[in-house]
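Hi R.,

Here's the chain you asked about this morning:
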Amino acid sequence: MKLAEALLQRSTYQKKIENLQSRILANLKVQEEEEPDEDPQALLDAALALHKELCELVKAINACNNRTRLPDGRSLSDALADRENLMKQRDLLARIASSAGGRDYRTARSELRTNVLLSARVLQQQVDRLSAEYRALDVQIQATNWITEF
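And the predicted structure, written out as tokens:
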């Protein structure tokens, strides 16, 4: 099995757990003298068992990420942290650039004008640079996921 397949399995487990939780909550309470459509205890047991399987899978994925190296020598774990950092920086700058680029709408000439203290153009250039770095790193991570034996 490849690492990418293990990551897909992790996602499947997470979705199944969410589904089980919804079903538990839907069958948790019934009116007197009625029966639930599904046994909430059986659903809970299944969800807890799946949580244990998911935990073991995540541990194995983390171990694989720690020992797997990208072509630049970085561990896959470090690359994932770097990718997340790039995304958060990009999102921060994009929100600021969006706000900086807004127009100053005054309803009367007597109102004070506002001055934008950061250049929307410069911020957008930084967003574009971070986006390109993110995409390049993400491609390396995805390629590594599909060639790494789990």
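Residues 40-67 form the longest helix (28 residues).

Let me know if you need anything else.
M.
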